[in-house]
Write a structure and sequence with these properties.
Number of helices: 18
Structural class: alpha/beta
Strand content: 15-25%
């Protein structure tokens, strides 16, 4: 079949076809050029009656394949089709039921052979599954996750922690049989409970730090972060029952009122603003009925604000002296303890005071800018979204994460399917960011780094993992941070997208493994070409021509880019195209 080498040009070798037959079944089959101790691997890319054209791919040595080579074989090298053992070094061991192997799918080039990868190599790195709509991404994702748990002859991965952000609620059915596997549990969390075995998403409001609030309230100006910092400081104080907290409240309220007194506004405005504030924010020591002792008689705080016939507040100096006695230079929150919870209404109450303390009443421009925080939080509180933040029991972040991956009977949960189908894209993006930050913070505070790996798999990732304003406002994008820093802590991102070109360039560049179903948009193909060093123009042409359910898999876990056909998931996700003719008629 293979005759002598006729020509060697760069990484292309021309061989004689001594049989004179065009055996198309040999196209894309791998061959080995053997000479002395070297074994160079190539792929048949063209066959004529006279010649074989072979593209060199790499070198096999000591039972390992390494792509690329320092020099091609000599003209005297002999060529043969690779053996089964050599083939397994290229497409993966056929023992896919081993705990160390992950079944990807069927090989398109080698009938009857499976494509597998090392589980650790694949799942210890960020990955992306891309492809145009209708090419089978959801089926591929469902099948890969099913394969993790379906084929295990040695051990069940009971300590796996997969969180799938299911934007359309497609995967509910795909995971419905997982619970039949001994030791495997699936938790279904949703934004709208429609089934008995699902539960409503809930986020304790007291988990929200400054960055979370900025995400929740869609802050577009970094100068507003200081107001959110004050808000969390104030809600801490307003909710505390510690006696020390009252001293801090007096100090906060007094400073706010002193600012109003020195604002230069007319007496009527000053009186009305002070009365309005003290009706809402007061303490037993500082309120409208607080007594102010003057020479010869005593009046209440409110009486001291009365305006005389000349339009002046005659007792204003007594008010100033009364307020000035509270002067705590620094609030020490650690003195107040942390055994309490608060809700969104408490945050709103504190936010209003934070706006007052920032002097928004004295600056129209500042008021207009900062008031957006109040408007957005008020909108959430008075919308169905509030129910996701109604948590009445105190719980630590660490305990919260552990409970997420446990059943009420304390059994381990391996898969959490988060169904965001019932909220709009904007709020789904907010929830995704908040949960991702929560997982990342949890992992970075573990005593034993990487002891609780969590895989965050994000459907329709191009909608949420993009270059938005977070980097400008917060100084980072949570998805970019996770892809850059999360791997060493065991937080791994999996992106599923039909538009890789719209994904954050930083996040995508940190992915080590890719499964590309059919793509044909030039910008998306350009991204694939740029991110993979071992993908050639021939591979890109293959991606453009793939059938549904087929993909090109490449990356650090794959010795070579390999064509793979996915088995249909069992059960299927709810992602099928509509049957138009059946619906119409």
């Amino acid at each position: 079949m293979f005759g002598s080498i006729i020509d060697i040009t760069d990484n292309i070798i021309i061989l004689e076809n001594i049989s004179g037959k065009i055996e198309t079944n040999l196209l894309h089959i791998h061959v080995a050029f053997v000479e002395n101790s070297r074994k160079i691997i190539g792929e048949i890319i063209k066959i004529t009656k006279e010649q074989f054209t072979i593209m060199l791919l790499g070198e096999m040595k000591d039972s390992f394949f390494q792509s690329g080579m320092l020099k091609p074989p000599t003209m005297s090298a002999t060529c043969r089709i690779i053996s089964q053992n050599e083939l397994e070094l290229l497409i993966g061991s056929q023992d896919y039921a081993s705990k160390n192997r992950l079944l990807i799918g069927q090989s398109l080039n080698y009938e009857g052979y499976k494509v597998t990868v090392d589980k650790n190599s694949f799942f210890s790195n960020h990955f992306a599954i891309v492809g145009n709509t209708g090419t089978g991404k959801s089926c591929a994702v469902a099948r890969i996750i099913q394969n993790i748990f379906y084929y295990n002859k040695e051990a069940i991965p009971i300590n796996a922690h997969l969180v799938l952000f299911d934007i359309y609620g497609e995967y509910h059915n795909a995971f419905s049989q997982m619970g039949n596997i001994p030791g495997i549990k699936v938790r279904k969390v949703t934004t709208e409970v429609t089934e008995d075995n699902s539960e409503l998403i809930s986020i304790p409001p007291y988990f929200l730090d400054v960055d979370d609030l900025a995400i929740l309230l869609e802050v577009q100006d970094s100068s507003l972060l200081s107001i959110l910092e004050k808000t969390l400081q104030f809600v801490y104080i307003f909710k505390s029952t510690d006696p020390k907290a009252e001293e801090y409240k007096n100090d906060m309220i007094a400073k706010c009122l002193l600012d109003i007194l020195s604002s230069g506004k007319n007496p009527t405005q000053i009186r009305d603003q002070i009365v309005s504030i003290l009706m809402k924010y007061n303490t037993p020591s500082l309120n409208l009925n607080s007594e102010i002792v003057q020479p010869g008689y005593t009046r209440t705080f409110q009486q001291c604000l009365n305006i005389d016939a000349q339009g002046k507040i005659n007792a204003i100096q007594f008010v100033v002296d009364f307020l000035s006695k509270w002067n705590k230079t620094e609030i020490q929150l650690n003195l107040l303890g942390d055994n309490f919870i608060y809700d969104l209404d408490d945050i709103y109450y504190a936010l209003e005071f934070a706006l007052l303390s920032e002097g928004t009443l004295n600056s129209q421009s500042m008021y207009d800018k900062a008031n957006t925080l109040k408007v957005r939080l008020h909108a959430i509180i008075n919308s169905p979204m509030k129910k996701y933040f109604q948590v009445t029991n105190p719980i630590s972040k660490e305990e919260y994460i552990h409970q997420m991956f446990q059943t009420p009977m304390k059994e381990s949960v391996q898969i959490i399917n988060m169904n965001f189908d019932f909220v709009d894209d904007r709020f789904a993006k907010i929830l995704t960011k908040i949960f991702s930050r929560l997982f990342f913070q949890f992992a970075t505070h573990l005593n034993e780094r990487g002891s609780f790996p969590i895989h965050i798999i994000l459907e329709e990732a191009h909608r949420y993992v993009n270059s938005d304003s977070d980097t400008k406002i917060l100084g980072y994008n949570i998805f970019d941070r996770i892809t850059k820093e999360g791997r060493k802590y065991g937080i791994i991102m999996g992106f599923i997208t039909q538009r890789p070109s719209e994904l954050s360039e930083t996040s995508l560049s940190q992915c080590s493994n890719f499964i590309s179903l059919k793509l044909f948009h030039p910008e998306d193909l350009k991204v694939i070409t740029a991110i993979a060093s071992n993908v050639t123009s021939r591979d890109i042409e293959k991606i453009k021509q793939l059938r549904p359910g087929c993909a090109l898999a490449f990356g650090t876990s794959f010795p070579l880019p390999v064509l793979v056909k996915f088995d249909l998931p069992n059960p299927l996700p709810d992602s099928s195209n509509i049957n138009v003719s059946e619906t119409w008629f």
